[in-house]
Amino acid sequence: MTPADEAQLALLYEVAGTPKPGNVDRARDHEDLHFEQFLAGAVGARSGLAAAESGERVGASFEEAVSGMAAAARTNTQFGALLLLVPLVRTASEGPLTPERARRTVDETTVEDAADFYRAFEHVDVALDDPPADADALDARRGRDAIPALRKRGLTLAEVLALGADSDDVAAELVGEFERTFRAAADIEERSGPYSERAAATFFRLLAAEADTLVATTHGPEVAAAVRRRAADLLDAEAPAKEAFADELVSRDINPGTTADITAAGLFVALHRGEGDD
Hints:
Layout: H1 3-16, H2 35-44, H3 46-54, H4 58-73, H5 79-94, H6 99-107, H7 111-120, H8 147-153, H9 157-163, H10 169-175, H11 179-190, H12 195-209, H13 213-219, H14 221-233, H15 239-251, H16 257-273
Helix pairs in contact: 1-2, 1-3, 1-5, 1-12, 1-16, 2-4, 3-4, 3-5, 4-5, 4-7, 5-6, 5-16, 9-10, 11-12, 11-16, 12-14, 12-16, 13-14
């Protein structure tokens, strides 16, 4: 398989795993977000992933992936996962997939990549915190209307992502060395069985370790912290307790989407490294 194939497969394995408390999976839908839409999103994103594999700029590849995802799924299914996967695919297509080389891929992004990143927000609705007081003109929710301010300041994609790294774990992964992504990959590799089931177990471990930033954005930090504590309490519980927790979060519309994004990225790394095939 090529890196683009592996990334698409990672998206499919991630959504197929169950239970993933609060997330859409093969056993659970949200009222306005369904399992089939995630399958469609993974198919629609393929051309952007292939563009990254072929050497297209990170920003342009990401916008193409998001555009295709949105057109196929008719909603935002995997925005954060694609933001992680595109530079990982680009890195893997050019040499060894290591944290240091993945970080370098992000560091080498340009102002044009940042402009493409802003254009991607015009394809979907993304839950975001308010920007810092001195960065209102760079609010990603402005889409392409923010690009003049971006160009005036000469900010690269890496620099834009750094502005949100303190409050968003996907941004933190990208401007760091993909620490949680590679840790998730190692956890997946250590497990046996179908990749979708390994992914669900790794998702639970990630959720128990750190509060999900999407939950914090949509429901507040106290709810995110409570979800993390509950996941930690249930980490070694029997399946029925985990299933009940998953059902509860869905009923409350609590969706730990950032944890799912990192799980998908970890799956890609594990698939690319070819560990634990069975």
